[in-house]
Amino acid sequence: MPELHPIPSVPDEPPPFLRTWRRVYIAVLLYLAAIIAAFYVFTRAYR
Amino acid sequence: MRALDWAVLVTSLISIVAYGLYRSRGSNTVDRYLLAGKTMPWYAMALSIMATQASAITFISTTGQSYVDGMRFVQFYFGLPIAMVVISAVVVPVFHRTKVYTAYEYLEQRFDGKTRALSSVIFLMQRGLSAGLTIYAPAIVLSVILGWPERVTTSIMGAIVITYTVLGGIKAVTWSDVQQMCVIFLGLVVALVTCIVLLPHSVSLGDAVFLAGEAGRLNAVTTHFDWYDNFNIWSGLLGGTFLFLSYFGCDQSQVQRYLTGRSIAQSRLSLLFNAAAKIPMQFFILFIGAMVFVFYLFVQPPVLFQHMELARIEGTIGYQPIEQRYQHAFEDRRAAALALVEAHHAGDAASARRETADYRRAQNELDAARAEAARLVERSGGAKGFTDTNYIFLSFVTRYLPTGVVGLVIAVIFAATMSASSGEINSLATVTVVDLYKRYFRTGGSDHHYLVASRWATLFWGIYAVMFADWLGRIEALIVAVNKVGSLFYGSLLGAFVLAFGFRRVRGTAAFIGIAAGEAAILATSIFTDVSWLWYNVIGCAVVVITALAVTAAAPSGRSYPTSAKPGMQQAQ
Fold first, then answer.
1. Of A40, B49, B346, B438, which residue is the least packed, with the fewest Cβ within 10 Å?
2. pLDDT tens across B4-28, in order?
3. Cα B335 to Cα B374: distance, rounded to the nearest angstrom
4. For chain A, which residues make up each domain, given as ranges?
5. In terms of domains, do B405 and B494 share one?
């Protein structure tokens, strides 16, 4: 009897948008920069 | 709570558990029980990750935090997207390809058995301490606000969590988390809308935002640097990145969520969804707190939101002057707020400046009266460092929200507690069985044996969490200590994984010594300095890496230093 049921292998796939993961990561970091900028403007506007 | 509230609460809980158990059918092997057979879609993992991270105290405390201190807490999450990108790019593919059940199993492949064992024990200590607190912290708030006995609340929450986690394994945990996040989102939206509707007719949403800003409650970004301040943009970006790298990259309670993905891409998408959604979600929760603050500009809030402590000091000699001062300050603030709104509407800049000064003066006076009441609590035998921040939101909910919505918000608290707790129990059981029991106590058992062992371990950790929560209730002063102890372990764990992924020359003994040195450095920082806990991870990680590199450099070339790694276990290098 095998010790443990084997863990299935999982495939690697391209992202569903922006074609490469590198582009997706850059998009996430740009999004972070945009959200911090938006919060900064929000803070200044209502200070 | 009225009948409709109970109906909403009970229906929510039953549907969450039933749906989780229904989706967990077929969890009859270890890999299905602990890893869902690697079949989970990205959206289920994404919501499960979010639900596991957001405990009930997150919702209770965050809204209160915004009420008293504004929205700057949101900066704590600025490091999260950076951490998610790093983990998606570096960690996720390695964990999937090495086919591990736990993050610490990978450390044995990369280093040796003792590094894996040390990391596993550090995780069990850290997560085991917080498991009780996850259940206890919301239970004590619910007990004070609703008058429910703490033991009953913790027992009900614990029983529900144990039932579906033991029976259904990670599939039940994940699909329950999905439901729980839906309840949480719905509850928060309804709470915000209701709060805005309850504002006076003469005050629009725009006016409410303006008033919150004038009171300093919309300070979402603060750019000053301070080592001792938890929440500014620098501590958020740097300290937060290290904290979330540790949490999502090294903490099994999170790693296990994305190890269930049916592909590397699905796991990455689940993390990147959190990278995108978490900050807006926290902003939204903090905004609710700011709106509750505006609501209380026009409806007098209690001097203290913890009504049991308030009742205790009301009969003392020093209370009457505080209450009178508080009442005057509230009347002044309300008048100034209304005058400020009128000046704002009229576009009268000179009048607006004058009213703003009055408004802020009254707010400071109100804060001073509340601080005096808190000191009176301490002087009259209450807890040292008394604060009622965690009671503000639920106090508002139970007093002013309509029937049905109250039940929904209480369901949110239950859902958040159960989702965080089930993830913890599930991961504690996994590490116990895979990294310790199977590795050191019973090697070579059958799949069925380890499946049964996993169920028993889950049951053990569930009961432990409930009993620990009960114990915390009797030794309340320990809560602060436990919370602090919980934050002491991540830095050294992160250091171990940074070595594993980034420094190929470093081997087992150097990593082991580095982890021990990192842990010592964090403890020393905690004991001998006032540096904010958010920096502990940076310090611990840096000491682990520097120490391990120094040991590696000092070792004789050729045969470096003793290692207990088995032949063939270094292939991941």
1. B346
2. 999 999 998 899 888 888 888 888 8
3. 26
4. 16-47
5. yes
